[in-house]
Write a structure and sequence with these properties.
By secondary structure, this protein is an all-beta fold. It is built from no helices and 11 strands. A hairpin with a 6-residue loop joins strand 4 and strand 5. The protein is globular, with a radius of gyration of 13 Å.
């Protein structure tokens, strides 16, 4: 599965970005999806997740982004989005979208639960 993440860029603190994740050959609504991020010198960390359609489409967020970030999917465009508002310097990282083939319990925050990863898109927030 090839996941393509896009939409990153450079913004000033307080600005917004919308990241997109698409895939070839897969109907993304059938899978639980998530966004993780990795800053230089740090471990990859959970940002947000959305359950597959038909499983309640529940969404989950890291405490650090709660209230500023929204994960969603457009089934017609077969795309998963991460809308990020009120960006902070500490949001600077490479953002990765990821897909889980099996049902995940809980808040879906663990990297090893996911099977496929995109190449990442850089988000840089200047203070």
């Amino acid at each position: 599965v090839q996941l393509q993440a896009s939409g990153g860029g450079s913004v000033q603190a307080g600005g917004s970005l919308r990241l997109s994740c698409t895939a070839d050959g897969r109907t993304l609504s059938r899978y639980s999806m998530a966004w993780f991020r990795q800053a230089p010198g740090k471990e990859r960390e959970f940002v947000a997740a959305i359950r597959r359609s038909g499983s309640g489409s529940g969404t989950y967020y890291a405490d650090s982004v709660q209230g500023r970030v929204t994960i969603s999917r457009d089934t017609v465009k077969n795309t998963v989005y991460l809308q990020m508002n009120s960006l902070k310097f500490e949001d600077t990282a490479v953002y990765y979208c990821t897909l889980a083939e099996r049902h995940l319990a809980g808040r879906m925050t663990r990297t090893y639960d996911y099977d496929y990863w995109g190449q990442g898109t850089q988000v840089t927030v200047s203070s």
